[in-house]
Amino acid sequence: MVTIADLNADDLQTLRNKVLGDYEAFRARGLQIDMTRGKPSPEQLDLANGMLALPGNGDHFSEAGEDARNYGGLQGLPEVRSLFSSIMGAPADRIVVGDNSSLALMHDCLVWSLFKGVSNEIEPWSQQSGTPAFICPVPGYDRHFAICEEYGIRMLPVPLTGHGPDMDMVEELAADPDVKGMWCVPKYSNPSGEVYSTEVLERLASMRTGAPDFRLFWDNAYAVHHLTVHRHEIANILDLCEQAGNPDRAFVFASTSKVTLAGAGLALFASSAVNVKWYLARAGKRTIGPDKLNQIRHVRFLKNIDGLHQHMEAHRALIAPKFNTVIEALEKRLAGTGVANWTKPEGGYFICVDAMEGTAKHVVDLARQAGVVLTPAGATSPYGRDPHDRTLRLAPTYPSLQEVRLASEGIALCILLAALEKHCTALAHNP
Ligand code: PMP
Fold it and tell me: Where in this chain does the entry annotate a coiled-coil region (predicted)?
């Protein structure tokens, strides 16, 4: 097949008119489909309906006999910490269970590092002479970037390679003492879906950092969110950091937001013993203790790690067909045209499309006019600015399979139409 770049002016115009006609027909259907955020669908939430009746009347005591209705238990119940130990890559005594949002824990860790410092021996980031900066793999998670923006942390974009960030660039940037941290979504990354390689993990754990108080914000949000039978595993970042002589480098986060209930899950933190002590000292000023009834509810419902993996299989059965549908629609309309590349993720919540350079905003606009709402173009870059204006994040989990099919056909059309219009305009200016 010839790519659209190979077409002569007449053929290009003819194709553009045809695709425009298809787009108009699509728009005339008057659809209203939201593909903006990686939210679980109602059917996925239904999988955890059994939790709504838990822990049940009278069942409010932990294994140790602690009354979960009362205050206290800042670190979380030991049986809950044990349940998540293999996911967090740390023994139960180096895990903290928070309330429902891991993003809130990341926010807290960043704010405490800014205002209290990462230890007693070192000044808070905000009181040191330079402006603190974070390394931000791109495309990345917009809410990570929003936290940095909120607190005036400079963001330093680094491209992802398909198996983690470009480590030569990361090492160069990390040598600067003002660079205090780095966002990482190491497995089924949001939105590229990539899994960081062992080599990348080893280099992150062992690299020289100019700042002695540098921290990896290790957001393992999709640790158990597989889309195929292959359950990808990554090396243990806490162990690698310890082996490399940097035992306190990584703050590890995860949650059950996309395991059980997105608004009523459990958020988890794990790190070195020193960092857990630091965390608890700060957290103890913020709360008297977490929601332990929800913790008991989770243990009763998931039971053990096998129960958790089984539950994730049920999610996979619901959402993998949606991902396949998007990929089929993109392939059908765009394969061989040379206008876009897209990921085929084996886990996580997103498909990432690189449309033709300079067209992503136009694609989002065309889709919106046709009733399909996409994540704003640029959202996957710091400050919402995609220098290439090409990356689109598709979130297929929430709409129904039928809606996902329709929306993806429309999105593929918009990507093609935007590229054709760009080519036609370029030809008109430069015949
Ligand atoms: N991290 C990443 C990478 C995410 O994609 C999301 C959800 N979209 C979150 C964190 C939010 O997690 P939580 O619900 O635990 O706050």
Answer: none
